[in-house]
Amino acid sequence: YEEFSALINFLRWRRGDAPGRVQLLKLPQFMDDLDAVLDAFPGARLLWLERDLTTVAASSASLVWNQRRVQSAAVDPVAVGQEVTATIERREARAAAALTRRPATPALRLKYDAMGRDGLAEMRRIYDFLGLVAPVELAETVARTARSSAHRAHTYDPAMFGLPAPR
């Protein structure tokens, strides 16, 4: 992660980013090694989107299964569901433990459902948390994103992956 941080800093320098510009890194894998990530990125602030884990597992299992089917005709969807569920549970536990060890880490927890109900209010919470002024066009951007067909959920059957229906 230290090497990754150095690469990010090089890219920011190469782009000519302003020193205070927020750099968003969105990677669920960071939850596995949150202590090391926070060591490599001092001053990091976390946005933690909380979503029903059964929904996340089913959606992720569908994506993983579809990716693996491209390379193999023998992909067991139930095994994929079990693997994805174990990964999600491990990441959640490891990240929660890291934040318990580091209670001063700034973290904003957001509810996935709240993003759907009032995305504008949640985006304003994010801007406030990051100490940024929300752009004038934020409401328009959030509304456009909500209407976008690219922002629609993909369809899948959780039972296919041996998973319960989302709550």
Keywords:
mainly alpha; 167 residues
Description:
This protein has about 170 residues and is mainly alpha-helical. It is built from seven helices and two strands. A two-stranded parallel ribbon has the order 1-2. About 10% of the residues are buried.
Please outline the helices and strands:
Blueprint: H1 2-15, H2 34-40, E1 46-50, H3 53-69, H4 77-101, E2 107-111, H5 112-117, H6 119-130, H7 138-147
What is the gyration radius calculated from CA atoms? 18 Å
Number of helices: 7
Distance between the termini: 36 Å
From the spread of the alpha carbons, the general shape counts as globular
Helices and strands, in order, run as HHEHHEHHH
Largest beta-sheet characterization: 2 strands, parallel
**Overall average pLDDT:** 92
Task: Identify the strand order in the major beta sheet.
Answer: 1-2
**How much helicity do the residues have?**
40-55%
Strand content is 5-15%
- Report the uncertain regions: none
What class would the helix/strand composition place it in?
A: mainly alpha
Write down how many β-strands occur, each being a DSSP E stretch of 2 or more residues: 2
Compact description:
This protein has 7 helices and 2 strands. The longest helix has 25 residues, at 77-101. Helix 1 (2-15) packs across helix 2 (34-40) and helix 3 (53-69) packs across helix 4.
